[in-house]
Amino acid sequence: MTAAMKRTRMFKKLKWLLHPISILILAQISWGLLMFVWIRWYILRSQEINSLIEKISVPATSSGQWVILAQGCILMGFILIALYMIFVSQRRLSRITKMQDTILSSVTHELKTPLASIRLYAETMLLRNVSEDEKKKFLNRTLSETNRLQRLIDTVLISARLESDKSSLAHGRVNLSELLSGCCSQVKDRFGDNRVFAFELNKPNDESEFFIWGNPYHLSMLFDNLLDNAVKYTEKGGSILAGILQKKECVQIYVKDNGQGIEKNNLKKVFKKFYRIERNSKLKVQGSGLGLSVCHSIVKEHHGKIFAMSDGLNKGTTFYVEFQRIPPHSGR
């Protein structure tokens, strides 16, 4: 083994010492030892001075000494608090930097895949004599990949807009049953017959319209992301159900699949930005990690509620969204 390899191995063993938490612990221990040594030295010196004063019969004035000691301890405490605040700030900055790297990596990967497909179809049509049927097929696939790019860009833009509270799109009366039905049709057209896809609309007293006050563009992206997520994590031949229920004064929308499922400890985490569950599955799902986070932000914007339920791995997942309902002919 060479000297360079030995140094590298030694550095890896001691790398934990450079971790911010290790540095903070060592700094706290150092300050504690320093305080102990200083106070011990101060007390010993004070005792020596007091004994000397008693020998030469000089009146002792030691009341101010303890005030100085207390002031020193308070200053040391402030220094420790400042050190801890610097540590917290650095950790937060480190998380932000890591999140930015994740954004670049995820979005770049998601952009490259459809761009590569579009380029391949274009080069094929330019370099080969293709029939009209093949040309139409290539153009349809190119359009599909273009729509995929558009959805990704819209997701990133809406995520940034909602995160900064700068969403200024107008709100109005939205027919949820009509909007959800349209989103289901679009998803079925997008994925073809690769999944058994069903749309279910439960309605009381033959009332087929469920109205809320919201933004149709954002709500359309909400349903599209939930349906797209269900399709991604459901194997070929699986089933996906989407529907609407009336619950007292609210409307509940659900998207149910019989796919991979989610463990209970991850049911709330899936709505965090860039959170991806590590899965050992035949399905290789690609994504930016923004879809469900955007869903959560859109529901929050509409003062609603979103949550997921699953019995565990390979037992499917159901996402529920609840909004306050308004009468069909109400102005608000």
From TrEMBL:
Highest rank taxon of the organism: Bacteria
Per the UniProt entry, the Enzyme Commission number(s) are 2.7.13.3
Q: What's its top-level EC category?
A: transferase
Tell me the GO BP annotations in alphabetical order: cellular response to phosphate starvation
According to the record, the segments passing through the membrane are 21-43, 63-88
Keyword check for Plastid: no
Q: Which Gene3D superfamilies match?
A: 1.10.287.130, Histidine kinase-like ATPase, C-terminal domain
For this entry, the protein name equals histidine kinase
The chemistry this enzyme catalyses reads:
ATP + protein L-histidine = ADP + protein N-phospho-L-histidine
| Molecular function via GO | phosphoprotein phosphatase activity; phosphorelay sensor kinase activity
Any one cellular-component term (Gene Ontology): plasma membrane
Q: Which UniProt keywords apply?
A: Kinase, Membrane, Phosphoprotein, Transferase, Transmembrane, Transmembrane helix, Two-component regulatory system
Classification via InterPro entries: BphY/WalK/GraS-like, HATPase_C_sf, HATPase_dom, His_kinase_dom, HisK_dim/P_dom, HisK_dim/P_sf, Sig_transdc_His_kin-like_C
Residues in domain Histidine kinase? Answer: 106-327
